[in-house]
């Protein structure tokens, strides 16, 4: 994998800084450090100093929290344009989550000092960073709302649509493969692996998804969207006469 310059970025129109004037964009590249990651490489770990932000240029990065039993709980899978990490004014503050590359990824690492100097030279970019962080906050609040108001089946359907958008444009009738393990999907929805398997089976019976070896294949986008928009808590899942609740 080779680094792609901002001018050639395929996600340029939706990225945080890629549509800046050429001079400002060049200065931004000097403020950050371009880093390439292979799948399963860690960008930053929980408990490390909160002294940098990470802009995802290419690929997918998962954000997760590890509990006291050593189990990982995936909070989000971020794609191009996402602003990750935590930036504190106090050196004693630490990252509350970890980040790991899911696919090959290109990331621009922006240290606190270099980012502050860049914003002093180009104060107009401060609003862009504020807007990006506000979007990340909105995503976090939406996830909390979904956990409170939506059943597990609806959350899983919404997650599959979100991951599909990260893989490429969703088109009606298109077979789109999502290469995530059942355990990873379960962690992102907030259920056990066994419950996630039952939910996937239910979505398959409804014709929204298919199966291709270990992949999940979206076969009916419209139906999956309808399921994702269902707001009732406790969607029943048929599994040997039992019902799984969120």
- CATH H level, superfamily name of the largest domain: Jelly Rolls
Approximately how much helix is present in the residues? 25-40%
Beta-strand portion reads 15-25%
- Any idea what the CATH architecture of the largest domain is? Sandwich
Q: Tally of extended strands? A: 11
Q: CATH topology of the largest domain, what is it called?
A: Jelly Rolls
Description:
The protein has helices at residues 22-31, 112-121, 125-149, 152-167, 182-189, 193-205, 221-228, and strands at residues 33-37, 42-44, 51-58, 61-66, 72-78, 83-87, 98-101, 105-111, 176-178, 209-212, 215-218. The chain has 246 residues and is of the alpha+beta class. It folds into 2 domains: 6-146, Jelly Rolls (Sandwich), CATH 2.60.120.10; 150-228, Winged helix-like DNA-binding domain superfamily/Winged helix DNA-binding domain (Arc Repressor Mutant, subunit A, Orthogonal Bundle), CATH 1.10.10.10. A 4-stranded antiparallel sheet has the order 1-8-3-6. Strands 2-7-4-5 form a 4-stranded antiparallel sheet. β4 (61-66) and β5 form a beta hairpin. The longest helix has 25 residues, at 125-149. It is globular. The relative contact order is 0.13.
């Amino acid at each position: 994998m080779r680094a792609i310059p901002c001018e050639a970025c395929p996600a340029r129109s939706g990225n945080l800084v890629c549509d800046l004037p050429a001079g400002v964009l060049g200065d931004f590249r000097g403020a950050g450090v371009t880093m390439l990651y292979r799948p399963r490489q860690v960008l930053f770990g929980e408990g490390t100093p909160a002294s940098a932000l990470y802009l995802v240029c290419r690929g997918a990065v998962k954000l997760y929290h590890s509990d006291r039993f050593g189990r990982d709980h995936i909070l989000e899978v971020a794609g191009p344009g996402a602003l990750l990490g935590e930036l504190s004014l106090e050196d004693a503050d630490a990252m509350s989550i970890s980040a790991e590359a899911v696919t090959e990824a290109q990331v621009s690492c922006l240290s606190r000092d270099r980012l502050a100097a860049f914003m002093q030279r180009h104060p107009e970019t401060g609003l862009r960073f504020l807007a990006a962080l506000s979007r990340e906050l909105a995503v976090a609040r939406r996830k909390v709302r979904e956990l409170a108001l939506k059943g597990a089946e609806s959350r899983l359907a919404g997650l599959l649509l979100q991951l599909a958008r990260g893989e490429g444009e969703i088109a009606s009738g298109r077979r789109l493969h999502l290469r995530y393990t059942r355990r990873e999907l379960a962690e992102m929805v907030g259920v056990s692996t066994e419950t996630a398997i039952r939910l996937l089976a239910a979505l398959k019976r409804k014709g929204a998804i298919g199966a291709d070896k270990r992949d999940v294949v979206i076969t009916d986008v419209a139906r999956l969207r309808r399921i994702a928009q269902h707001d009732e808590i406790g969607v029943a899942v048929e599994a040997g006469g039992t019902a799984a609740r969120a």
